[in-house]
Structure prediction request, 692 residues.
Amino acid sequence: MLIEELSRIPGVSGDETRVRNFIKEKLSAWGIKNETDSMGNLYAFKEGGKKNEEQGIMLVAHMDEVGLMVSSIEKSGHLRFYKVGGIYENTLVAKPVRIGPRDVYGVIGAKAIHLQKKDERKKALEVDKLYIDIGAKNREDAEKVVKIGDYATFYSEAVVSGDLLKGKALDDRAGCAALLEILQRDYPFSFTVVFSVQEEVGLRGARVAAYRLNPRVALVLETTGAADLPGVKEQDYSVSLGLGPALTIRDGSAVAHPRVLDRLISVAEEQKRPYQFRSFMGSFTDAGVISLSQSGVATGVISTPCRYIHSPVSLLNMQDWKHLVEITDSFLRSVHEKGLDV
Amino acid sequence: MDLNSFLDELTQKDGVSGYEENTADFIAEAFSPFVDDTRTDNLGNLIFLKKGKSEHGPRVLICAHMDEIGLMITKIEDKGFLRFTSLGGFDPRTLPGQEVRIYGKKIVEGIIGFKPPHIYNENEKDKGVEMNDLFIDTGFSREVVEGLIRPGSTVAIKRSFITLMHNCRAGKALDDRAGVAVLLQCAKELANLAHEAHVYLVATVQEEVGTRGAVVSTYGLSPDLGIAVDVCHGDFPGALDHEVSPLGKGPVITAGPNIHPHMAERLTTVAEEYCLPYQKDVSPGPTGTDARAIQISLGGIPTGLLSVPLRYMHTSVELVDMQDIKIAGRLLAYFIMRLESGFVEGLSCL
Prediction:
């Protein structure tokens, strides 16, 4: 499945080339006109029916994932690193990573439990004390295969089993996969799809893309953290797996445009598709910068709920994702047929 | 099968302490071309015999444990989340975000889940993750989970065998599957050497929960002398020099009260004579290896300990240098080849 393939590709913020090339190849194979800009955003122009008179709809999902970046190479040959984006630090240790364009394998080790003093274990491992071990003998040896500035991603195989998908980078490759699904369908109208870069380091790609396209309406397809987990109070779940895609009312970066939100709700209701509201009002998506582009864009967000985002392996329910695709499809058709008063 | 493919496949076999059967089957197959006899004792220890030339030759036990640290389900909670305890010593901080295989009615895959960071309050953030904070998420409902898994179901960490630079490899359970690979290398070398001694190569069980397999296998075999093959702490940034041994500089010969002085001495002499790189280490009491059980079996067994340096012990990214494994196997084979009854008799006269 495309979603599994997308999950496996390394593409840390600022290093989205391989994801972009993968998507570009698909677009070209399907005969969809596409182009990129200087930041690396990928635009797909879906054409159908008469050329739109007015400014159109823009759909967005981000290609980048959180990861690491090599910050220095120690004399011993071990690599120190920065976090790129909001990786959950407690999941770094005892994980394999792949580094740089050559996919050099490394592991993030930890002091053996036997060598720790009793109090050591009570404290969280500090990220600035961690390092990547590639098996190099010393700095010169390591420099043969990696360099400062190389990006590193988690290494975990995406697997679909039944309704469940496990894998890295589902935030937001699930959104990218949904857009690729949409792009394969026929529509009697035109719209533009943006695969954005650098979302995880400050919504930087979408800002440029929205400026360039200057759309009237935008819908962001995201993957949002589900906290329906033991030890979490129900009011803190934000969203739950298996209850349908999540609609954002507001988050830390944007208030969803009420007309866009209403339309998403009404098409979901008409289609009898499950949906839920994202109850956590924090964190950011591309909607934050798109909605403020030029003289303002009516923007909404629909997300696939996903547990353990920003860690080596996240988990989502494919039914939620399928409903997200269908609601997005119906939203597009509905806006074309009935218009949207914004 | 070369050592690399052997360890690659072996680390993909799950065998937490007390549940080593899958692992044993694979090991038995790999050793069979090089040994004269294979059997299993009541606890599951896998015992290979490589016969010596002389009927009355000394009987040598060489063992490495095939069990790995793992987890065990304690409770199925609402919504199907699973709580667990550990079999062997895990640092809980290395567990969040690990993928696991749960051995229920069938193998069920899961993730070790955790509270997302935005749920933590400020003072919780600096606190190390504890076992109680963690749970396993299969994504299935309670009903489905209850049909497949019960308290007591064992859990192994899922991790592929990773090829790093040069001869370095990383993965799970290399403590002490690296030792089992040493035994295989030893068996291969012995095939081309003449030796008097009868060699019992044993893949022991339950080392990680108290060297239990070694207790019964030593008793059962009643050897003249025994050598445990295990892993020791490899070097890493920030480590104290005396606690670790560098990788790639050969296996480590341990001395101390747990080790018969002649055994350490002879291993050293053999390494010197055959120009094999080796390192020395001391341990001030019973070692955390099968050697601690072997020494006090029966009326006392002269015991040696040979170790492969390994970084990040008891994590799922344990890291070894394949060359150290190969040399350790060779050293053991030469040790056996040179073993004469005079040396064995001398062991009891201190």
